[in-house]
Every structure is written in C-alpha cells, then in structure tokens.
Amino acid sequence: MGYDAASLREKVDLKAVGERLDELGNMRSLEALCEKAWLLKVAGQLDDALDAANAAVRLARFTGNRRDLMRPRMLRAQVLQFRAEFEPALHELNSLIEEAHTHEWMLYEAFALQHRGKVYFDQKEYELALEDFRTAVQLRRDAGASEEQIESSLIAIRAAESHLSL
C-alpha cells in the first residue's frame, strides 16, 4: 500500500497481513521465515517478528551463502529499529553496508543504506538520514533498480529535507 511519508513506515492492510500469516502457518523455509518476519513487523508484533528474523538468520547461516544471509539480517535490523533498539540496528546495518560494498552488491548496499537512513530518521538525525537516502537512490539508479525502489528513496529524501527546513 506504500509508505507513510511522515514516518517512513510501510502502510499495510492488517487484515491481509493476518490472512497471509495464516497461510504461511508453520512453514520454515528461508523465504517463509523472512516473509513472516516482515509481516509480523508491519503488524506491530515485534517480539514474534524478532523471533522469526532470528530463525531466518540461523537458517541462512546453515543453508546458504553470504549473499543469502543479507536479507534475513536486514529484516532483523528493521525489527530492531521498530523496537527502538537503534544501536544494535545500526551495528547490523553498518556491517551489511560494508559487506555489500566489499562484494559490489549494489542493490543490497542501497537497501541497507536506505534502512540505516530510516534508523537515523527515527533518531531525528535528519542530516545523516538524508546522506544515506541520497546515496541509496544513486546506487539504485546506477544498478538499474525498479522505479518503486527509487521512489521509496525519493520519498525518504523529501521527508528528511522537510525536517531540515523547519
């Protein structure tokens, strides 16, 4: 459903979220755990979201490669952000940014920068947020990201700029 431009949080249909969680049931694949973590996060069920994200990280460590671990770790950082656990979220995102940059995974780097910017935004560190959002949009453009991804960065830029101009 998009993003709330004031909070930079996802807008979702909570009924649809609940229905999808029911469909996923007890599925334990990496994809299902990641989806559950995201759905629980946007539904505000943050303890359960953190459990699902941690389970996804554990599974990815056992079954995947370094690249497969990026998404579960980003989800965990997002849940930590929503729980206002900013320092652990920043630590995870800084590590993800460094790893993605080292391996030249531009879209992962952009995604992690975007989310680190959201942590800064939540902390009212709008200049730091703006810097990350601008870098994310440039990386996304350079990597040929979808218009939806680029637009989410542009929305974030406008939100941070609006706070700086007050």
From TrEMBL:
Keyword Chloroplast included in the entry's annotation: no
Keyword Transmembrane helix: no
Pfam families to which the protein is assigned, alphabetical: TPR_1 (PF00515)
Listed InterPro entries: TPR-like_helical_dom_sf, TPR_rpt
Superkingdom per UniProt: Bacteria
Stored PROSITE patterns: TPR
Annotated TPR repeat ranges: 110-143
Alphabetized UniProt keyword annotations: TPR repeat
Name the UniProt record assigns to this protein: Tetratricopeptide repeat protein
Organism: Paramicrobacterium agarici
